[in-house]
Design brief:
- The chain is 33% helix and 25% strand.
- By secondary structure, it is of the alpha+beta class.
- The strands form four sheets. Strands 1, 2, 3, 8, 9, 10, 11, 19 and 20 form a nine-stranded mixed β-sheet that branches.
- Helix 1 links the parallel strand 2 and strand 3.
- The chain is globular.
- Bound molecules: flavin-adenine dinucleotide.
């Protein structure tokens, strides 16, 4: 690939309004794209981050900041500042089950400065990351920049064409990164075809209000099971974030049964939320997550790299999608900073990012798939309340085994660290 100018430049062009030039053009201001932009900007690489929306206030997509992300931010001196923003800590969620509650993981036993999952409204997290990136003059954020297509010349991707409220523009770049999530336009435009699996469940997300009769939820989260449904609740300070897990494709049946049936089902699982569910009066209060899992066999081609959900959509089991997108970003920055600064990114550099990140992704997806098939599918088929078998309760008393789920959730398969260039 040919070197590019090192400064962000801007020039007129006949068929598009503006043409910008940069070194790395990142499409998508989600956790993966925003963190990659910050890491490259602080190393002195010219970066443009393009986000389709006008702000970071988006539909709920999970608000978890995992121990590994907190460690990464700590390595670049930002963990302290992040902790000053409003958040809740989840360290040991409890499941309500026959025979007593069960704690599937407890992060407090892990060796880390941050033995908890921080729950922070994602727009606040993304604003924080992009504001930090904006402290570097070589970073530029374009909001309302909806990428339409890739610019390809001589068999290489040379940037993107995007739509703004003012018309069409181009960004020309040495490297383009698709961090545009599960419905990635960049992935589709690049001709990458993901291998999909269909997990057996969908999730209805909704909020429940804070009330004087709020239950005590130790560990920051709770959940339970009854008659083929799973109900989870996360403590969010001024409201409860609730998830109701249903068998895949059964949303219309749940709707046809009506809100009263849904409220009753939640109460069978956790009667402590009796008053709260009275506030569920309209289906507009719910958003349906169609659970998917997929991975691209190849994450790159000349001039283009995919990271995060664009490369691999993660199932919500274990809530590791954000964590994995950020770990991809760290590895991409570690591997690519030097080639980007040298103005020459080889295909082998892009392959190295995939090499380092693919196997942790495939292992965690295999674990998710096992849990979905062997545990969640059975629970969704069963008409009973959750019964945790005695052997599982005993296994969770063995220190090495007991802490394995916590370690996987906190750090993924492999801890990643920010490398200085
Ligand atoms: C309802 C729901 C709940 C979830 N809960 C959790 C959870 O609790 N914990 C967890 O870890 N994960 C959770 N996930 C998964 C998690 O959201 C993703 O794994 C994670 O956000 C992936 O990050 P990303 O940066 O790769 O992509 P995204 O976060 O999807 O970000 C992609 C960005 O690209 C932008 N974009 C898209 N197309 C274009 C375009 N053409 N041009 C410019 N910009 C574009 C989007 O607007 C978006 O801002 C949840 C997902 C959903 C849908």
């Amino acid at each position: 690939m040919e070197p590019t100018t090192s400064a962000l430049t801007h020039e007129a062009h006949e068929d598009v309004l503006d043409v910008f030039r940069t070194t790395c053009c990142i499409v998508g201001g989600g956790p993966g794209g925003a963190v990659l932009a910050l890491l490259l900007a602080r190393q002195g690489v010219d970066v443009m981050l393009l986000e389709a929306h006008k702000d970071f206030d988006r539909d709920f997509r999970g608000d978890t900041v995992h121990p590994s992300t907190l460690e990464i931010l700590d390595e670049i001196g930002l963990a302290g500042r992040l902790h000053q923003l409003r958040h809740v800590k989840v360290f040991a969620p409890t499941l309500r089950a026959v025979g007593g509650s069960f704690t599937p993981f407890d992060l407090r036993r892990l060796k880390t400065r941050f033995p908890y999952i921080m729950l922070m409204h994602q727009p606040i997290f993304l604003e924080f990351v992009t504001e930090e990136a904006a402290k570097y003059p070589n970073f530029r954020l374009l909001m309302q920049a909806n990428v339409l297509e890739l610019i390809e010349e001589g068999g290489e991707v040379r940037g993107v064409r995007y739509q703004s409220p003012h018309g069409q523009h181009e960004v020309r770049a040495l490297l383009t990164v698709g961090a545009d999530g599960r419905f990635s336009r960049v992935r589709q435009q690049g001709g990458f075809v993901p291998i999909k699996t269909s997990p057996p469940m969908d999730v209805l997300w909704f909020r429940l209000p804070r009330l004087p009769e709020d239950p005590q939820v130790t560990g920051g989260a709770t959940g339970g099971v009854s008659r083929g449904h799973i109900f989870v609740v996360l403590d969010r300070f001024d409201y409860w974030q609730a998830g109701y897990i249903i068998a895949k494709g059964h949303y219309q049946e749940v709707r046809a049964a009506g809100l009263e049936a849904l409220r009753r089902s939640i109460l069978e699982i956790d009667p402590r939320f009796a008053k709260h569910v009275e506030h569920l009066t309209d289906w507009h209060q719910f958003s349906l997550l169609s659970v998917e899992s997929s991975r691209c066999p190849r994450w790159y081609k000349p001039g283009l790299l995919l990271i995060g959900d664009a490369a691999h959509v993660m199932s919500p089991v274990g809530g590791v999608g954000i964590n994995y997108a950020i770990q991809d970003a760290v590895v991409a920055a570690n591997v690519l900073t030097r080639p980007l600064k040298a103005g020459r990114v080889q295909l082998s550099d892009l392959a190295e990012v995939q090499r380092q990140r693919e196997w942790p992704t495939r292992i965690i997806q295999a674990i998710q798939s096992f849990l979905q098939k062997r545990v969640i599918a059975n629970v969704l088929r069963s008409q009973e309340t959750l019964r945790v078998p005695l052997y599982i309760r005993l296994l969770f008393r063995i220190p090495l085994l007991r802490d394995l789920p916590a370690r996987l959730i906190a750090f993924g398969i492999k801890r990643v660290h920010v490398r200085s260039a």
